[in-house]
Write a structure and sequence with these properties.
Number of strands: 8
CATH topology: Pnp Oxidase, Chain A
Largest sheet: 8 strands, antiparallel
């Protein structure tokens, strides 16, 4: 049933572009570290080329993916069809978090619509592309995007966001360094 692809081809890119939800998973190197899996939405995913993707990492209550990528780079992105024919696509790779103060950020950011409170752009060099059936995934009807993030961001001043990020995004749940601008360099 499942298939491994040499790259993200045009057919897969079109299918991915129709999905409204994707999941990101990462983990620290420590065997007892917390594995992270986060749902993502909005118009925040882009295919840069057949072996490279990126997504916007919005301000939130944690910094797990960024911390894990700083430590080891391992990441998987999963899409699953919630409408139409069943299908699951996984993109395994090595990711990097690029923050607004870094030179590459503006170039990557240009691939997305305007959104408030972006912590970073996550860029992934895709090493494995695969699909599977998804027969066990239920059907859902897409109603629309939530407006909670833009509304929340509109209530925050730049200073309030900086304070929030310092409190919530400087370290992972396991204590790994988070946002680069809030932590000392990892050696």
């Amino acid at each position: 049933m499942g298939k491994v692809y040499p790259q993200i081809d045009d057919e897969l890119a079109t299918w991915i572009g129709r999905q409204h939800l994707f999941f990101v998973a990462s983990a620290p190197l420590a065997g007892d570290g917390l594995i992270n899996c986060s749902p993502k939405g909005l118009d925040s995913f882009a295919i840069l080329d057949p072996h490279t993707v990126a997504y916007l990492d919005f301000n939130g209550s944690g910094v797990e993916t960024i911390s894990h990528l700083r430590e080891n780079g391992r990441i998987v992105i999963m899409f699953c069809a919630l409408e139409a024919a069943p299908k699951i696509v996984r993109l395994h790779g090595v990711g990097r978090s690029i923050e607004p103060h870094e030179p590459e950020f503006a170039t990557l950011r240009a691939h997305f619509p305007e959104w408030p409170t972006i912590l970073s752009v996550i860029r992934v060099d895709v090493q494995r592309v695969s699909d599977s059936c998804g027969f066990g995934v239920p059907l859902y009807e897409y109603v629309g995007e939530r407006d909670a993030l833009p509304k929340w961001a509109a209530t925050k001043s730049a200073e309030a966001l900086a304070t929030y990020q310092a409190q919530k995004n400087s370290r992972s749940l396991d204590g790994l360094p988070g946002l680069k601008r809030l932590t000392t360099p990892v050696r």
